[in-house]
Write a structure and sequence with these properties.
This protein has 21 helices and 7 strands. By secondary structure, it is mainly alpha-helical. Strands 3-4-5-7-6 form a 5-stranded mixed β-sheet. A two-stranded antiparallel sheet has the order 1-2. Helix 12 packs across helix 13. The protein is flat. About 17% of the residues have low confidence.
Length: 566
């Protein structure tokens, strides 16, 4: 994001002459206006020194004294400079100059998420901003009459950001609000959008049971998924095939690289869907094309509802919150039936063995499995809340300092190393999601880096508020550690070759340290990672090698990655 973009929808002027002065011609301002919009106004706006992001100002009233005896170009220049200065004063003061509002979106994911949350929750106070930024466009379904189709139309224009935006929105407005807005067909449409398919792929039901590695992977994905926690907390009873669509979103959230490699993980999407059914209190029962024996259910998520950055700027204090489900329990066998009835209330948690296996034995009573999943989720949530209470930064949107900010630059040499396919195709890593592989590789590449260092987490596509499950993951087996060590060694060699410095020909680890060991501040949110570094720390060797060029959208991280020198 190189700088702010300022768009003025309508510019109007009213001419008032002083007392005792003859009225000027009615069209006296027409010439200066034409001159202003032809160049001087754009020049003045381009010089604005605004903080990064999208600034939306509903209305700006400005009073300006003009000497109408001056030529039109001079008046246009003065007018343009005054408009730009007034915009900058208003933005920096943080208050709109007139009723209507001033809204700041730090990036497009936040903007899109705010629109989704607002439309789903029935909030319209920022409708003008969503239209001003092009999220809502002429010809879209009317937001008041059809909020679900309207927000789906907005998401279809941003397919890469759709999953991250919906997840952020669900945390802000509640999963039930989205369910009311678009229902089962909307979830299916969203899943198809995220996977890039014309229609969502059917859930795998037949075939051999998933192997131990796939079951362990499913457990880890659910354990690190906010969406799974939201499903549990919403008490929705999802109708078929909504859980299959949610499974796609869990993959997009927790292991986006695996999203388009489903054939390499047979049964994974079905396991995730079964786990989400259990969290929603829906029995896992055989159906057409489903295996005769119920699949083994993975453990429920062990993440609390996070206190991460909201979907967008905070709404007014009296804005409605839509996180209550509609009453009534639909028939779960009816396709796309109304599925917003409340599930069973959580019971008191049972004492669990922390060393119990990653995947439980097959159960034939789906209702009992769902109840047990809810019980364990409740206990794990309380534990997680206590653990994170003292760890979370005061404002995650401001980022966190690190001495390893350059570690994220290694994304530039990831493709040469074979990522992400190399990790996905490695049999020794079949039970691990890609974020775990990347985080483990980061610790091998940067000896001494703390597991929770923002740079190590950012290289895995995570922020501190989403790292709890990763940091508590089971230790690597010898085979896994060997595979990651080989990956890290090749990654270091690729980085050394990119630098082209003979000093590192026989010391690739030294090349990694030269690139990675630099101070900075990292903001890592769902769908967005930004690394801020000091201009004084600009490294010509890094720049010549192109390591600090903005990666932009990194699909296998599920995030936009930006570098900013300040």
């Amino acid at each position: 994001m190189s700088g702010p973009t300022v768009v003025i929808d309508r510019l109007s002027a009213t001419l008032r002459h002083g007392p005792g002065e003859p009225p000027p011609p009615a069209d006296r301002l027409r010439g200066p206006l034409r001159h202003a919009v032809a160049g001087p106004l754009e020049t003045a706006l381009n010089r604005l020194a605004l903080p990064p992001g999208r600034w939306c100002l509903a209305r700006l009233d400005l009073t300006l004294d003009l000497d109408l005896a001056r030529p039109d170009p001079a008046l246009a220049h003065d007018w343009s400079e005054a408009v730009a200065a007034a915009i900058e004063r208003t933005v920096r003061a943080g208050r709109p100059a007139a009723p209507g509002g001033l809204v700041h979106y730090r990036h497009d994911v936040e903007l899109l998420a705010d629109a989704v949350a607002g439309l789903a929750a029935g909030r319209r106070e920022r409708l003008w901003a969503w239209r001003q930024t092009g999220v809502l466009r002429p010809g879209d379904p009317a937001p008041d009459a059809s909020p679900g189709p309207a927000l789906l139309a907005a998401l279809e224009r941003h397919p890469r950001l759709a999953a991250a935006a919906v997840l952020r929105a669900a945390e802000h407005c509640g999963l039930a609000a989205l369910e009311r807005a678009w229902g089962c067909p909307g979830w299916q449409r969203l899943a198809a959008l995220v996977t890039g398919e014309d229609r969502p792929a059917p859930e795998e039901c037949a075939g051999p049971p998933p192997g131990p590695a796939t079951r362990a992977l499913a457990r880890d994905l659910l354990a690190g998924s906010r969406l799974a926690a939201l499903v549990r907390d919403s008490r929705l009873r999802p109708a078929e095939p909504t859980p299959a669509a949610w499974a796609v979103l869990v993959l997009a959230e927790a292991d986006p690289a695996a999203l388009h490699r489903i054939p390499a993980r047979p049964g994974l999407r079905g396991l995730l869907a079964d786990g989400l059914r259990a969290l929603g209190g829906v029995p896992v029962r055989p159906g057409p094309g489903r295996a005769a024996q119920p699949r083994e259910l993975p453990e429920p998520p062990d993440t609390a509802r996070p206190a991460g950055p909201p979907a967008g700027p905070p709404p007014p204090a009296d804005a409605p919150r839509a996180d209550a489900a509609r009453p009534g329990a639909p028939d779960p066998d009816a396709p796309c039936a109304d599925a917003a009835g409340p599930g069973p209330a959580p019971h008191a948690p049972a004492a669990g063995d922390p060393a119990e296996p990653a995947v439980r034995a097959p159960r034939h009573d789906g209702a009992q499995a769902g109840e047990q999943a809810r019980e364990q989720a409740g206990e794990q949530t309380r534990e997680q809340t206590g653990e994170q209470a003292g760890e979370r930064p005061a404002d995650a949107a401001d980022g966190a300092d690190t001495g390893w900010a350059g570690l994220v630059f290694l994304l530039a040499t990831a493709a040469v190393t074979g990522l992400p396919d190399r990790a996905l195709d490695e049999p020794a890593l079949a039970a691990r999601p890609l974020p775990w592989v990347l985080h483990t590789a980061a610790r091998a590449l940067a000896p001494g880096i703390a597991p929770g260092d923002p740079a190590a987490l950012a290289l895995a596509g995570l922020g501190p508020d989403r790292a709890a499950a990763l940091l508590r993951a089971r230790p690597a087996t010898p085979r896994e550690q060997d595979a990651v060590s080989a990956l890290a060694a090749d990654w270091a060699r690729a980085t050394a070759a990119r630098l082209g410095d003979e000093r590192y020909a026989h010391d690739p680890s030294g090349a990694v340290l030269a690139v990675a060991r630099r101070p900075g501040r990292i903001t890592a949110e769902t769908g967005w990672i930004e690394v801020r570094l000091a201009v004084a720390d600009t490294d010509l060797a890094v720049r010549r090698a192109g390591l600090d060029l903005d990666p932009g959208w990194v699909g296998w991280l599920g995030a936009v990655v930006r570098y900013r020198y300040v």
